[in-house]
Amino acid sequence: MFAGNVVDQRHGAPITIGYGRYAPNQRLVETLAVDDVMIVIEGRLSVSTGGSTETAGPGEIIHMPKGEHVTIQSHDEGALTAYVTYPHWQEAQA
């Protein structure tokens, strides 16, 4: 998975805005240190939290609250997303 920030703490913003690229059938398991909103631009992603799974395609939004244990899974075509996090994810993971 590749994440590239466009706006973050370097710009004095209280949020991080960027793009993420997922390879085909890639899986990311993480406990979120920030509130995260992803907008799917291309491809599809499934996000599992607890006992539920939400799948999103182009133009759809997934919200993942801080503290949630999530599994993000791309599908055969991979995915391109835009994201907004609060606070900055780099600082929260440090």
Automatic annotation (TrEMBL):
Top-level lineage group: Bacteria
Gene3D superfamilies reported for this sequence: Jelly Rolls
Xref: InterPro entries: EutQ (IPR010424), RmlC-like_jellyroll (IPR014710), RmlC_Cupin_sf (IPR011051)
Residue ranges crossing the lipid bilayer per the database entry: none
UniProt xrefs under Pfam families: EutQ
Protein name in the entry: Ethanolamine utilization protein EutQ
Organism whose genome encodes this protein: Bradyrhizobium oligotrophicum S58
Lineage, top ranks: Bacteria, Pseudomonadati, Pseudomonadota, Alphaproteobacteria, Hyphomicrobiales
